[in-house]
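Supplementary Methods S3. Complex input for the flavin-adenine dinucleotide-bound model.
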Amino acid sequence: MRFEPDGRYLPDIDAASEADLALASRACPFSSAGPDEDAIADRLYPELQKHPAIGRHASCYVGHVAEAGFRDRGSSGGLTSWIAARLLEDGDVDGVIHVQPVARDPGANAIDSPLFHFAVSRSVEQLSKGSKSHYYPVELSAVLSQILSRPGERFAIIALPCFIKAIRRLALQDPRVASAIGPTIGLVCGHLKTAAFAEMLAWQVGIGPDSLSAIDFRHKLPEPPATSYAMAATGRNGERTVRPMSKLAGRDWGQGWFRLNACSYCDDVVGETADISIGDAWLPGWVEDPAGTNVTIARSARMQELLATGLSSGRLAVQDLSADDVANSQAGGFRYRRDALELRLAEAKDKGRWVPKKRVKPARRITGQRKRTLEVREQMARFSREAGAQARQSGDFSSLLARMQKLVERERQIARPKLRHKVMRWLRSLRAGAPQ
Ligand SMILES: Cc1cc2nc3c(=O)[nH]c(=O)nc-3n(C[C@H](O)[C@H](O)[C@H](O)COP(=O)(O)OP(=O)(O)OC[C@H]3O[C@@H](n4cnc5c(N)ncnc54)[C@H](O)[C@@H]3O)c2cc1C
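Predicted complex, serialized as structure tokens:
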């Protein structure tokens, strides 16, 4: 996998044989060659009930870790790190594959030295160093080579839905992967960004790409709600700047700044092929707590057992949640990945462009204002991705931001009710109020 100047990974396939490409296609989560999420989950959890949005599930919960040291370090309730820590301590696995920050060499060029990578943690202490959500591109090849060189060991993996799907597909083809990978922990996912997202946030607080040495995308603030978190960027001189996301351009996830193109062709929001899926409880009654709360979907018996014993021992403060409420906590994600995906597929088909086979069928049910909003948002994603390469090279995000502000303004205009509609509404209200 090559780390490209625009801040994303691309596969290096020039020297690959036809046979290698055919194998890779069966593992790539965005290729139509292998089984889809339904087929994988049907095979893994045939006895579990199926929900149209969250897929197969045994039980769903909302809550946080009560045991000290997890929630405060975590993005939300700290459950992801807690589950992984239990697997290590109980001896289920020898290590946990997850994303860790990289200590950048002082002279390193930001263009080709990523800030995060997949690594293996073998202790709870190591694991805790990777806490938080890293909205940054990563790839699995290096860590896979590492674990395959140690036959007999077993690993848990924490990853986004498409990575878990890739691992499941790979395990079907390669028995070494099937025996090395144990429990899978999926993070609920809105979309993944290019590296330019981190650099643009840091640039807005005066830290240029080459001076950025670390970033925390989910610095918790003491005031409610949990959605009002901050970003903390550390420069090469060690100085750390914390800035609420509400003060930074590019914070709106719906607008999709720097969203990877593949994410526009994904229909798995929660990680339907994982043994457990964990996300943020963006739900009334929970989102008000700035300390952070998780939603979780358990599928395997071991994950149900860990949650039940965590609850009975008082180490977890969780309670049952309905599958519908888990889906409601990700309403925006499902609108984009299911309803709006129909339209993207239909448009791509009309233009003769290749798209992967999805569980969602192409359709043109979205029209009018919503369709225009989606169009301008796709432009935002595409333009920020393309112009990101130039901004990374120059270390200057000003022209990208100026152009993005114009697109944001266009989105605002689309959302604004038209004068004609306002007059019609006013006339209707007059008629309603007139004596009969
Ligand atoms: C790109 C991205 C998009 C997301 N979108 C949504 C969303 O739309 N809705 C939602 O509810 N939740 C989303 N999440 C998940 C959410 O941000 C939290 O990660 C989740 O709620 C777990 O919180 P926690 O406190 O339990 O995790 P923690 O205890 O902080 O542990 C997080 C663990 O995840 C690992 N990790 C972090 N980033 C990555 C990554 N990119 N790939 C693999 N492992 C990683 C860390 O190494 C750490 O081990 C997203 C996460 C990411 C990375």
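The longest helix spans residues 368-394. The mean pLDDT is 95.
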